[in-house]
Amino acid sequence: MKLNDIRDNEGARKGRMRVGRGIGSGKGKTAARGQKGQKSRSGVAIKGFEGGQMPLHMRLPKRGFNNPFGKDYAEVNIGMVQKFIDAKKLDGKKDITEEALREAGLARGGKDGVRLLGKGELKAKVKFVVTGATKGAIAAVEKAGGSVETKAPAKADAE
Question: What gap in Å lies between CA 94 and CA 104, rounded to an integer?
Answer without folding.
Answer: 14
